[in-house]
What we know:
Elements: H1 3-15, H2 17-28, H3 31-47, H4 57-78, H5 82-89, H6 98-116, H7 120-130, H8 136-143, H9 147-166, H10 175-180
Helix pairs in contact: 1-3, 1-4, 2-3, 2-4, 3-4, 6-9, 7-9, 8-9
Amino acid sequence: MSDASRRNLRNPIRDRYDYFVSRLSYRLGSRDLADEALHDAFVRLDRAELAVEIKQPSSYVLRMAMNIAANRRRRETRMLSMEEVEAILDIPDDAVDPAAAAEQHFNRKAVAAAMARLPERRRTMLVAMWLDEVPSAELATRHGVSVRTVQHEVRLALEQLREEMAAPKVIPLRESDRRMS
């Protein structure tokens, strides 16, 4: 592009800057965005290589600034804001850490061992009532006892499990300690 063509495009910006800013502000909804787009257009016109003469420089500059602003908005919508980045980084890790997994495994084994130590009838009633959700009346009929007896047996089973699970756990570290217990 010749120097005359560059001047022909840059002079309207210099001479009618307020007009361009007000038109762009109206269309873009932001004076700051209009200022930045117009400035970028002015700078780019210095580097532009045009093969043809522009017949309406004011319209060309306005369109160029609008395109620059549209490109900037598209680019900014692809980027996350700081709040969005912080929200993503604050997501708790749902993966179970090895210590928690080991503790869960140990607790499952402890519950299974405590359940095995319950008398057969209590264990059967507890499992049927809590896991299979069998009503007390049906359990009473199955076992040939009253509903009150079923409730009493389940309460005793739960108390025994609570006591055993609340007792301190001793984990033998050596093989010789395991044989002694």
